[in-house]
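job 3f2a | input accepted
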Amino acid sequence: MFYEVIPAKLFKKGAGFLTYSSDVSLQPGQIVEIPLGKSTTVGLVYKKVVQPDFPTKPIVRVLYAKPLPKHLIKMIVWMSEYYLTPLPTILNLILPNGITKNRRKFTKNAEKTEQTPKLPLIELNKAQKNALNSLQNSPGATKLLHGVTGSGKTNIYLEMAKNALKQQKSTILLVPEISLTSQLVRVFEETFGQKVILIHSKKTEAERHKIWESLLCSNTPSIIIGPRSALFAPVNNLGLIIIDECHESSYFQENAPKYSTLRVASFIAKTLNIDCIDGSATPLIQDYYLAKTHNSLVTLKEKAKGTATEPQISVIDLKERDNFTKNRYFSNKLLESINRNLENHQQTLIFHNRRGSAPLSICEDCGESLLCPHCFLPLTLHADTYELICHTCGFKQRVPKACPHCGSPNLLYKGFGTKLLETELKKLFKDANIMRFDADNTKSNSLDAMYDEVKAGKIDIIIGTQTIAKGLDLPKLATVGIVQADAGLFLPDYSAEERTFELITQVIGRVGRGHLDTAEVFVQTFQPGSPVINFAIKQDYEAFAEHLLKKRKDTYFPPFSFIAKIEIVMKTESLALKKIRAIYRELIKNPKLKISPPTPAFHERTGRGFHWQIIARSSSREQLLKALKTVDETAHVTLDPPSLL
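job 3f2a | predicted structure (645 res):
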């Protein structure tokens, strides 16, 4: 018998299926070990074929008797074609690391997921019931649940997962990051107990392998929760996919294979004829547009709690220094609100989406910046550890006593980050319990580890980046202060406005959730007249969508085109220019494409070399893919990039 097998190892350009012989009958989806060159590798049996007219090698052994679910086999082939990615690269998304290793048998604790707990009663208000009914009756497999912050999307997720369990079906719940959504995870664990299985990178290789194996071999319905990789769990009876905070950039994998989790989930749902629910208060504009076009948009406009109060929002102009007579970073009104909260034992949340103490180190005499030797980007000062750190590659060095370029001791540190804000607040409020949460926290003082203290109100002032902007429901939170709302608004990227709107909206949504009688928000900005900031302040997504869709249509960006970023990276700039110009000359001949001239990438120079790029757009994805197949193989191609930076 002969079989086409997808190897897990990329052995030559354009290669996909290999043919092997086997003395035993095999099923599509079985994981096997195959010879490849002078060694062996893992492979996936794709299908049985007739004997070829060339010699074949025998399959070494079968690793798992039970095959992968059929939807994953179909997905591998589809992703390879949709994202122009070799089959072996896609297969490695599914297979756990160390799959050929012999692991110890499962303990009894690990087998408890096989037990059946009693299904809970989940209370839904009228608006949630209507939304649930609309989701169940909307056409198509993929539906967008657009619910304002605090509208109770989680309750709808719980009810849908419970209904799936009743039908002996499993649910995959995707979250942007376990640490950013600890509250949602806890609710599911409290509701469904041992039915919940967590998959994330903090688990060891052996733990992830055991979970993968148990899911492959089990037919008992479960609720699998994790980041984008959880979508590839070998679930045999999948009945529902939920993608929470579906606007998050982490759902797009930046390294090979580059893919959108939302698109892949939609394909799986369509293949299995099940629901895929994308949930967000600020969905990506192309997802909103598609859902509206296909009548699969369901909205939740009411806060879940009837006692919810609209926060009082004050816009503070950063250009007016009279607003900042007590401190250069915090307006007088914001400081007054913090004082009131401390007196009333209520919390304040300070948001700034930039960590560290100062993002720019510059010599006052020669004007040179202190740059990362690998990325050639400005090093960020971290005053608490007295280090300069590159936030791109992680390079660290002690703060120099003098400029390395001219020897001058006059080094200036410009701008500010969350560490500097923490220092300032500790000077202003000496008796307050102040905590900062961002990517610089250790595991022991992370938001996940300290969640109970934060929720109980033991932390008076919470400072942080997007770590604190989303998903938190804090009963004692009375005030939100956004230190510089327009920080990312004018980046040279088509999605800059969208990200700014999303962050402001999500941060404002942390207050006014029905726990307290009053709620305040202070939005500090250099651009108080910006339509994007004003749409976010009013929590008016529909008006923002209308504004942005008009811009996208005028500039021919998604959802009105399919887009690809083609990048060349070379050690010398002249070679990078030569390569990118050759690609441009070929692509510009195609009348069905709109090609931007070659330009330096946003990060023009890194340790890998000089980066130049071309942006290709087309109204037809098929035409775009056809053109990209002819591009020089040394180019890095990203299809559907969420950002051009």
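job 3f2a | The CA atoms of residues 3 and 74 lie 17 Å apart.
job 3f2a | closed
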